[in-house]
Amino acid sequence: MTKTISKGRLWTARVMSGIAILFMLLDSTMKLFKPSFVVDSVDHLASRSIIFI
Questions:
Q1: Whose CA is closest to 26, among 16, 15, 35, 14?
Q2: Mean pLDDT for the chain?
Q3: Using the 8-state DSSP alphabet, how is residue 38 labeled?
């Protein structure tokens, strides 16, 4: 008992999975190499979150 899915639904799932995978790869690359703009942005966000708490 197998159900077939449409080609449109299959490609939509592939694209959405690809976007999620690319985001995770970009995030891990940024954490690995720690470019200066990423470190500065994290410092800025961390200081703003303390103000709201």
A1: 35
A2: 86
A3: H
